[in-house]
Write a structure and sequence with these properties.
With 276 residues, this protein is an alpha/beta fold. Helix content is 48%, strand content 13%. The protein has a five-stranded parallel β-sheet with strand order 4-5-6-3-7, with helices on both faces. Residues 126-252 form the AAA+ ATPase domain.
Amino acid sequence: MGQPMTTTHEVRGHLKNVLAGQARNRQGNCRIHGAFTETLMPNDQWSGCPECLEEGKAQQRQAEQRDRAGQTRAAKLEQLREGAMIPRRFQQRTLENFATDGHDGKAFALAASRRYVERFEDRFAQGGGMVMSGSVGTGKSHLAYGIGNALLDQGYRVMGIDVYELIDLIKERAFSQKGGSEREAIKAFVAPLDLLILDEVGAQLGTEWERLMLFKIINERYKQMLPTVLISNCDAKELENYLGERVVDRMNEGGGMTLVMDWPSYRTPTDNQGRA
């Protein structure tokens, strides 16, 4: 059932005059659109240039559409961040707040990380990954998650996860869920993700099965030309022994690279940033 009209006496009278052809009109001149006819409104204000009014309405509609698009994008980014599994400690790590402290090696690593983000469209097309190796406290995780956070902001699907947690999820999906399998568990870390960041690679030797699962994920992503970033405290030789020379070599294909971060740890007893 329709709602009763709530227009005022003045508005109803004005509408009546308009319909009867008795409304007060006058000629006006717009600096933009030229001559026009305007009508005296119930509030004793003249209606103004109709084309200007329409343009104003169009601009308002566009602004509303931009607001809705912005809200949609913000909601999408929030959803991407929730799915990224980036640890809380690293959610605020950016390439902008990485401190080089005047160190040439740190400056080079930062520049390489920025280039990776800037050229990610090419890296994504070619499957180019990155290996960050070095001792603890050199900023490997900061740079890796700085890359991940920057790409999340651009709308890419990113996940960052420790290897031991990755193995736990594979076990859960493969053996604890009805109808689960290793193949299906591995697929969850391949096609749905534009970039996979694997932290603590080689931190624990694990079983042969665990190393095989890690190899399969990295290899499947390599075959599908999907970039992967590996973070490890191992040196180059230890990483080759852990993953195999072929895997490490493949990480450098498609514009990928290895960053060796071999400077001393910049953690101090008073540093609560937890950089790795």
